[in-house]
Every structure is written in structure tokens, then in C-alpha cells.
Amino acid sequence: MSTGIRFDGVTVAYGRTVVLDSLDLTVEPGEVMALLGPSGSGKTTALRAVAGFVQPVAGRVFIGDRDVTDLPPHRRGIGMVVQQYALFPHMRVDANVAFGLKARKTPREEVAARVTEALETTGMAPYAKRYPRELSGGQQQRVAIARALAIRPGVLLFDEPLSALDAQLRSGVLAELARLHRDLPDVSMLYVTHDQAEALTLADRIAVMDRAGLRDCGTPQDLYRRPRTAFTASFIGNANLLPVTVTDHGRVRLGDTALDVPTGDAAPGARATLCIRPHLVGLGEGPNTLRGTVTEVQWRGVTHRLSAEVAGHRVTADVRELREAPSPGTGIALHFAADDAVLLPAGEAGGAAHG
Ligand SMILES: Nc1ncnc2c1ncn2[C@@H]1O[C@H](COP(=O)(O)OP(=O)(O)O)[C@@H](O)[C@H]1O
Ligand SMILES: [Mg+2]
Question: Where do the TM regions start and end (predicted)?
């Protein structure tokens, strides 16, 4: 069984429009990689290139050591689950799960054993004789997962598999998928989603896509703590993204305020985006003080979310255990530690925290 996926300069175009631009990405054997990005960023296209439903105009796709670029979908050893439970309505659950095996001319006794195994893995064995219409959306999606598993794929592909489910069913199937990952330690999974919560829950690593390209890739913690682009910072978690100018090694200017932050190899005079997570902004003066005016106060249970205008930009702080919240319109001092700030290339995604 081949496992692991590699995109090597994979480019897909429709007519003259490039919708996937020279993607280089490796999913290790046994790894869950989320492809996370907004609608239209090329996620499904990347998945379909692995499945064999779309042919790249350049680049190669590997599954394990095999170059599968020119193989038809059924010879790639992949299982795929898509958004709409694409079950055959006139077939019972067991027949749906057996479908891919029969298409591959698997011997009859083996079909029965594999169907049972796949249904047991997804907790759907008691429903083997039902029709899809007799199941909830979450159960139908479990059957779709069983069908993908039945062929014992080295690679599982998921395209927004939870997006047609309501919130409660979604968290149930999400937990099921996490368990599946533990039960199948050798199977690589590529999981397409626009939902950061799903990616953070499930993925070992996240590949962040935007406008046909890969913008960032790392563990959820890496991307949260050390995003490489303003796009990643704003897409994963909340971020204050402030336009600054590098004045010196280790120093930047926000409006008239000088701040000490790691500047890496950014040259003096360069424009950059300073990223600070709201929970790392404290109330009062500190090593890097930002002075401004309170614009909004939201009580959120454990924290208060304070928004302030600082040098014409919105800065958000999530402050814990605040005895007395400041009033909008009053002056405020906020601070952050140099180590908690990340300097990013001046990005198009500039702006304030959201969510
Ligand atoms: N068959 C197609 N013909 C023309 N354009 C397409 C086709 N499929 C997708 N696209 C375009 O490719 C881009 C990426 O689509 P897709 O990979 O589905 O994005 P995502 O899954 O990230 O939402 C979009 O702009 C989409 O309109
Ligand atoms: Mg899509």
C-alpha cells in the first residue's frame, strides 16, 4: 500500500486561467494535512489532481513513490469523501459500501468481510440493511467514509465532508474522523476545508491556500505562533495586524511610537506588518506601550475584549480577569512583549482583529 502524497510543481488551468499555481507540498505517510483557505483558492482543484479527476498542465503528483499523474482515478489507491453524501439512494448501506470493491472485481467472500470491517470502523454496522434515506446526514456521511475505507486506500481525500451537516452532527463526525486517524496510523489524509476550527482539530499540519497558491504550511501551533504571512495570521485565529516601518535592527515605528520587536533581516526603511495576538496584549504600560482611545468593550465571560484606536489603527486586547472595564472614549495604555510580536511582510490582509 502506497501512502504519502507529493505535489511537485502542480499547475492546473482552465483555458488560460491558472487556478492552481505550481503547488509544491508533501503529505507524509500517516499524516493528516488540511488544505485551508477561502472559497475559490484552489483547494478542491488540488484534491482532484490527486484523485485524478483533473489533469495538471504542469508538474507531477506522487502517491508514495509512484508517479500517478497519468494513472486513471481507480488505479491510484485513493478513497474520497465529498461534501454531499454521494450515496446511491436505491442501494442499501452494505451495497453502497461494496460498490467500489465490486467495481475492482474483488472476490465475493472478501467483499463481505471488507464491508463488515469498514462499517464496524465507522460504527455503522447496525445500519447495514438500511437505505440512505433512513439515515441522518451524519450517518450517511459515515457510510460514505466506510465506502472510501473499504478499498483499503493508502490515501484518503476529504473535500469539506462536514459542510452539509448541522453543528451537532458536524462535531460528532469530526470526532469520528479524529478517531479514524488514530486507528489508521499509516493512511495519509488530505482534508480540504475553509473552516479553521476543523483544520485545527484534525490536522497534523495545515497548508494555507489563497488565490491559487500555497501561502504557508506548518503545524497548527507554528502557524498560530509564527505565521509567515499576514494572510495566515488573519485566517488562523485573531490577529492585530499593524502597518509599521522598520527603523533599525530590532525597532519599528507605528505612527509616532517606537517599538522593540524582532525584525529578522528586514532592512531599515522597509514597510512591514506587525502581528500581535489579542490575548498577548496586556492592559497598562509595559515594554512596548501603545497609547490610544477605547472604542469598544465586549464582555466574553473569562475575558473582556477591548478595542482601541492607536495611531489611526484598531488594536484589540483580550484581557482576563478585568475588575473594572474602561469606558469607550477614555484613554488607554496597552502593552506587549517583544517576543510575542511577529514581523511579517507588508501584507494585503492588513487590518484589525476579527471574530
Ligand atoms: N471546471 C472548471 N472550469 C472552470 N473553472 C473552474 C472549474 N473548476 C474550478 N474552477 C475555478 O477554479 C478556482 C478554484 O476552484 P476550487 O479549486 O474549486 O476552489 P476551492 O475548493 O478552494 O473553493 C475557482 O476560481 C473556480 O471558479
Ligand atoms: Mg472546494
Answer: none
